[in-house]
Specification:
The protein is about 20% helix and about 20% strand. It has about 325 residues and is α/β, with parallel strands linked by helices. The strands form three sheets. An eight-stranded mixed beta sheet has the order 4-7-10-8-11-12-13-14, sandwiched between helices. A four-stranded antiparallel beta sheet has the order 1-5-6-9.
């Protein structure tokens, strides 16, 4: 599927959407086009086995707005969660499960998913982008739904480590904003029994080797959509010695997520002696992903810092 220059698309009930910068364009280093799902992908759940499914599933909608380099591809109504696979030309064994944000109202799949692949695949990292279910879209016991998808994705990646060319001990995650809440939940609640066993992959550990939290909402406020108190999802209160190592990036002028949220996570890790590194930048706002800050701002270097930290954690 190809698209002409500057093509804009809005697709309802779409299986996939392609928005290449030019006909058939690809990033040579990553094989990534602005397409979702990409050529290589896998679904999380067998047909008819998606947990917490209501009688009527949400309708999938993909929307595109803005102009490059700030073009956005957003997903809503994900009913059949999928993981996009982006392989580097020279893999070094590291893997990242990228979890986009969107306030649990939509999924910023391009800014905080596809752009993660474009940034980290050239560094040798195999990137898996998660298109997960949103809790407020009709699912039963919706509080568990994102964590179900996150845990299942980690287990399937680990089960397929040899096929994907990754080291099963070097599979981490990175989450942005609301996706940061899911990444933090994986770091602290990877063992929570939130769904019934589906197959042999579910016998594997869902614990990430490390968790990158980028302008993360970690207090659980986003989970006020059901019967459970948000404290259950306050990651900073779940930190213990079994928590994955944590890397935090936040801008102090963020108008959406107060700095108190990632600071509490950092302090909890320090108290429990969990390896943690945190970078708080003066400027950056919210939603800048791995590619949307001007190079004049120090915060634009966070992917380089994360790469160095990952190398140290996984060596």
């Amino acid at each position: 599927m190809t698209e002409g220059l500057d093509r804009r698309t809005v697709v309802a009930g779409a299986v996939g959407v392609t928005l290449a910068a030019s006909a058939g364009a690809q990033d040579a280093a990553t094989g990534a086009t602005t397409m979702w799902p990409p050529a290589e992908s896998f679904t999380l759940w067998p047909a008819g086995r998606i947990p917490n499914a209501p009688r009527r599933l949400p309708a999938a909608v993909s929307t595109v707005s803005g102009d490059p380099p700030r073009r956005e591809l957003h997903l809503t109504g994900v009913a059949d969660p999928v993981v996009g696979v982006y392989r580097p030309a020279r893999p070094d064994g590291r893997a990242l499960l990228a979890i986009p944000g969107g306030g649990y109202q939509f999924i910023s799949i391009e800014n905080e998913g596809i752009n993660v692949a474009r940034t980290f695949a050239p560094l040798g990292v195999t990137v898996f982008v998660l298109g997960y279910r949103l809790p407020g879209q009709g699912w039963l016991e919706p509080e568990d739904v994102p964590l179900q998808d996150g845990q299942r994705a980690m287990r399937l990646i680990r089960a397929g480590a040899a096929r994907f060319g990754v080291d099963s001990a070097k599979i981490g995650c990175v989450g942005f904003s609301a996706g940061g809440l899911l990444a933090a939940s994986l770091a602290v609640a990877w063992m929570d029994p939130v769904y019934a066993r589906v197959d042999g992959a579910d016998e594997l550990e869902a614990k990430p080797a490390f968790a990158g939290l980028i302008y993360p909402e970690t207090s659980g406020e986003l989970m006020r959509v059901g019967k459970y108190p948000s404290a259950r999802f306050d990651a900073s209160h779940r930190v213990d010695r079994n928590t994955s190592p944590v890397f935090i990036v936040h801008a102090l002028d963020d108008p959406v997520v107060p700095a108190a949220s990632p600071i509490a996570m950092m302090q909890a890790c320090r108290e429990e002696r969990v390896p943690v590194e945190a970078h708080f930048f003066q400027q950056g706002g919210h939603g800048f992903g791995p590619a949307y800050l001007p190079r004049a701002l120090p915060g634009s270097r966070w992917p380089e810092l994360f790469d160095l930290w990952m190398r140290g954690i996984t060596r």
